[in-house]
Design a protein that fits this description.
Strand content: 5-15%
Largest sheet: 2 strands, antiparallel
Shape: globular
Oligomer: single chain
Order of helices and strands: HHHHHHEEHEEHHHHHH
Number of domains: 1
Strand order of the largest sheet: 1-2
Structural class: mainly alpha
Radius of gyration: 20 Å
């Protein structure tokens, strides 16, 4: 019953609680907003300098399930990339597909969270090393560590679109890979306990064993993932500090890429390493150095099932089907989630939306060579 209730909480939000949130019908655009701040600060990728979109890219811009802030091919690739860590090629409401994405042991570094093998005190260091390898690997794949960046090369990317469903589209490789690296760079803040004063990592959290396994041992596997840390609308002191540090790390990474001159690889690597500094010796025996994160609820979702338009009927429908499902629980679960969305009146967000009012812009930075 407890596991069924946890799954129910997931249904109510139609997204796995496994990172800063992305824009879905029922969750806020945390990753997108932080990435847009970095793009605007660095003026990179600069929408005004992007090539004319291909016909396929233009059609994709009008077929998205999220709001694209700029109508250009580079922004299209950047924001599809930043969402891909969480979605793969799944619809945001495809629970079955999302379970496979988030419970995949090989995908934990894409969220900068512990893998199954990251056990004991040394697991913090090995998890951060895997996170570092993922971020730098994505930047390497995009050519963003080279002194000369190739802006013209494209990559075939499978993504989900509102009308066409799963579709493969050619996207600028550098921007798509930058988005994926940026997502992980932001997740290393929501998936770690950190020293409020220095910002150093004290402990890396665990999803794969805590919610995807059957033999979870906190002392060995690490503290469980905390859904409350995914909420970028919170304004309490510790969470606001976490969000601002994730934003600044993103800005710093973009700035290191755009800064003119040789040595881009070293500059970017230094920024990534600064986000991964570990304070050793913080574990369960000392309450992870008296981490304030221990005050967070440890449920899979800490926000309950209250969403706009929910009169209670949809929630009760899902509860009933989950409890009574028995052997057919998985099939009923998927059907219940669909019915709940219909009853809640939740549709896919419009593909186009007015961009937020831009903040005052800094002086333009030279684009990388």
């Amino acid at each position: 019953m407890k596991s069924s209730f946890c799954v129910l909480l997931t249904i109510c939000f139609a997204t796995e609680a496994h990172a800063f949130e992305i824009s879905t019908p029922v969750s806020h655009s945390c990753h997108e907003d932080l990435t847009l701040d970095a793009q605007r600060s660095a003026r990179f990728p600069e929408p005004a300098e992007a090539p004319t979109p291909t016909e396929d890219q233009r059609r994709a811009m009008n077929d998205l399930v999220f709001a694209l802030p700029n109508d250009d091919a580079w922004s299209l690739a950047l924001f599809i990339g930043v969402r891909s860590n969480d979605l793969g090629s799944n619809a945001p409401t495809n629970l079955d597909g999302l379970f496979h994405v988030h419970d995949d042991p090989a995908q934990q570094p894409a969220h900068c969270i512990r893998r199954q093998e990251d056990d004991g005190p040394v697991g913090d260091a090995t998890a951060l090393a895997a996170c570092r390898e993922f971020i730098l690997g994505e930047l390497e794949a995009g050519g963003l560590l080279d002194d000369i960046v190739d802006f013209d090369v494209t990559e075939q990317v499978e993504s989900y679109f509102r009308f066409r469903g799963v579709y493969t589209i050619a996207l600028p490789r550098f921007a798509y890979r930058l988005g994926r690296a940026t997502h992980a760079m932001q997740d290393v803040y929501t998936h770690t306990m950190r020293d409020p004063d220095t910002g150093a990592v004290r402990h890396v959290l665990n999803w794969i064993d805590a919610f995807g396994g059957s033999s979870y041992d906190q002392e060995k596997d690490g503290y469980p993932h905390l859904s409350g840390l995914d909420d970028c609308l919170r304004e309490d002191t510790h969470q606001a500090l976490r969000i601002n540090r994730a934003r600044q790390a993103s800005i710093d990474m973009f700035a290191a890429i755009t800064r003119p001159g040789a040595g881009r690889r070293d500059r970017v690597t230094a920024v990534v390493d600064a986000a991964l500094v570990l304070t050793p010796g913080c574990d369960a025996s000392n309450n992870y150095c008296d981490a304030p994160e221990l005050g967070e609820p440890t449920e899979i979702r800490s926000f309950g099932c209250s969403v706009p338009g929910d009169s209670g009927a949809a929630t009760m429908l899902v509860i009933g089907l989950v409890v009574l499902g028995g052997r057919r629980r998985r099939q009923l679960l998927l059907g219940a989630s669909t019915l709940a969305f219909v009853m809640l009146g939740i549709g896919a967000p419009t593909a186009r939306a007015q961009s937020p009012t831009p903040a005052p812009q800094p002086a333009p930075a030279p684009a990388p060579a």
